What does this fold into?
Amino acid sequence: MTFDEFVGQLEWSDSALVGIDWQQIRTLPLFAEMPTLELEQLLMSGSVRQIYTGQKVFRQGQVAEEFFLLIDGRLKVTQTTAEGRHILVRVVHPGDLFGFAPALQRHDYPGTSVAAAKSLILCWPNAVWTSMIETNARLATNAMKAIGQRLQEAHARIREISTENVERRLAHAILRLAEQAGQEDGNGIRLDLILTRLDLAALTSTTQHSVSRLLSAWESQGIVESGRQKLRVLDKARLQALADGQSWDNSD
Amino acid sequence: MTFDEFVGQLEWSDSALVGIDWQQIRTLPLFAEMPTLELEQLLMSGSVRQIYTGQKVFRQGQVAEEFFLLIDGRLKVTQTTAEGRHILVRVVHPGDLFGFAPALQRHDYPGTSVAAAKSLILCWPNAVWTSMIETNARLATNAMKAIGQRLQEAHARIREISTENVERRLAHAILRLAEQAGQEDGNGIRLDLILTRLDLAALTSTTQHSVSRLLSAWESQGIVESGRQKLRVLDKARLQALADGQSWDNSD
DNA sequence: CGGGCGGTTGATCCACGTCAATTTAGGTGG
DNA sequence: CCACCTAAATTGACGTGGATCAACCGCCCG
It folds into this structure.
């Protein structure tokens, strides 16, 4: 069976797969410069799964038997400490690998992943990781770049938590989300994922209360528009100024 | 020229190289399961450099033309923010790769690396990275594991900064250093590297003042012994208890 | 022996976390 | 379609951990 036959077959055999843009997947940075044949075999060897908002893909501590690629939608990866405090490790965007414990030499998942929007994922058994890395140098370097990218993001976050106050951190976090998961629609940028105040707090190392207070203040200044589990950036420039540390007064 | 001839030659041509345990380098996790011939070629293609305490290997922002392997000694990697605040990104231990900007798709070094002990490093031009990764699958996976390891450490740090108070964080940091760079010598564990209060502060996201106060308090309780740029753990169990959050009173 | 960096220690202050009470928005089932 | 229920969000009052400011000490090195 060729890849195209495979795709053709999928489309009528499983409604969840209708609308998957396989061409776009093939152009992901992760798969850059990978021989078409190998890539198609790889994609065919994975299975597609649909995840509804709020549904979990894997849980913290669970034995890791698969790794994943987010095709469409949005996921949150969270961790809970022994004392019961939460942190939001990262937001997963389309095209991102996630839950790749084997690369980290772990046998369990270090966090829990929950869909923050209706999502479509591709899953492979762990064994595929090893073989695919070893048989395909391109993919190995691409995967390494992806992890390297995340390492840099983690360092950036450490830098922010260590040196910036809550307002700046929150502004930074929201700007980043707007960049990565924002949908421009005439009236500002809508964040295309479900995020509670608690999530934002867990992302910026603060409390839901501080987040709430700041968002309220910003809303009254017309910088953002925030409702229950939703958020819209109205004045990106002002937000950027806050992120840069210019906590100006409202006399323009 | 064979590897052994190469090593033999080095030993009389450069006094800095005397005493390098090449056998030990060959058994590094990074080089695990790598064909001997390729590994020897790789080692031969790098150059050895000796770094004195306080000396810098590279500076933040400098164009990255080489990547490095720490053979012996200890390095600190620091970052300075635009506002002039410092963070200590990590401590480099023997066997660690560092300054590998190419893997992160950067053309400059994101931080500055300074020797915190007399150190010996191996350097390669960046081009070697690409070729060595692509021709040697083993090395690629090993390197990825190493980076994955660091990603997990970064996440652990984020978790600590976000959820633990200064005392616990500092206890954790010192315990980790004792584990990685500690030298047991009859009377506690001596940390084999130069670390100022400011360094410890930059490592735990606090101020030199808080670090100083805590160390003073701990010293009076016989948990540590701290002097100018040096540190010794006397009571690891107590320190561990502090790290675990048991802030007991001194009635034993 | 003097200058400077690293360290200590006290006094003060405030950004934020904590605690507590209330409101609001969805979702759900009758 | 409304009434109810629960989770999310808001808002105020309060307390405090730890940052900041300031003064001083003392070990090293030149």
